[in-house]
Design a protein that fits this description.
There is one protein chain. By secondary structure, the chain is of the alpha+beta class. It folds into three domains: 7-45 and 186-214; 47-78 and 154-184, RNA polymerase II/Efflux pump adaptor protein, barrel-sandwich hybrid domain (OB fold (Dihydrolipoamide Acetyltransferase, E2P)); 80-151. The chain is built from five helices and eight strands. The protein has helices spanning 14-34, 38-43, 81-113, 119-151, 187-212, and strands spanning 48-51, 56-61, 68-69, 74-78, 153-155, 160-165, 172-173, 178-183. Strands 1-8-6-3 form a four-stranded antiparallel β-sheet, with no helix packed on it. Strands 5-4-2-7 form a four-stranded antiparallel β-sheet. The chain is elongated.
Length: 214
């Protein structure tokens, strides 16, 4: 009777090593998904605040809780009637100052070409310089008012879903107030939760295979 063959399969720790790798991968995923560090939270915030950038009164809230919003979408408008009037007046003043400077500058240049102008040329140059300064001052006022006008619109700092609204129509607000809280719906946390669950499953499978194959 022929002797029975014996198959000696060398035990391998490969599955144990792989289980260890996925175990630490799972630990890392659990940490980032459920216990994020300050560094992770800064890069992937759980919620984002839409901040009021100027004092005023709320004219209209354009969104409701639960709405899906896009980045830079207008969420809230503050009353801007008076600002709009000041802005138009400032633009008119700048246009007038610009025309005055252009006229005096041209006159000063023409006088400079005349060798007999003397004192008149100096006076015109001085007047042109003063007009230019007034023009720059008027332009600065227009620029500042434009920035203030833009600040009357509270825009979404990121896309996501409206989680909470803390102001309403006619609410008086100050610069720096939190108007709306947004859930950015960052897939980072969902990915890490899925990775943690998957890693746990793989660890169990590899450990089982390692034990069975011993």
């Amino acid at each position: 009777m022929p002797a029975k063959r014996k198959y000696n399969v060398k035990a391998s720790n490969d599955f144990l090593v792989l289980a260890g790798i996925f175990f630490f991968l799972g630990i890392w995923a659990v940490k980032d998904a459920w216990y994020p560090s300050a560094k992770v939270l800064k890069k992937h915030p759980l919620e984002v605040a839409a901040i009021v950038e100027t004092d005023g009164s709320v004219e209209k809230v354009h969104v409701d809780t639960g709405d899906t919003i896009s980045e830079e979408q207008v969420l809230i408008s503050l009353r801007s009637d008076r600002l709009a009037l000041q802005f138009e007046e400032a633009k008119d003043a700048y246009t007038a100052a610009k025309k005055k400077f252009a006229m005096l500058d041209m006159a000063a240049k023409d006088a400079g070409k005349n060798v007999d102008s003397g004192k008149d040329s100096e006076d015109l140059n001085a007047s042109a310089a003063e007009a230019e300064a007034q023009m720059e001052k008027a332009l600065d006022k227009v620029t500042k008012l434009r920035v203030t006008m833009d600040a009357t619109e509270v825009r979404a700092p990121s896309k996501g879903i409206v989680k909470g609204i803390y102001v309403g129509t006619h609410t008086m607000v100050k610069k720096g107030d939190t108007a709306i809280i947004i859930d950015p719906k960052d897939h980072f946390y969902l990915f890490n939760k899925s990775l943690a669950i998957f890693s746990g499953f793989i660890v169990v499978v590899f450990l089982a295979v390692h034990i069975v194959s011993r």
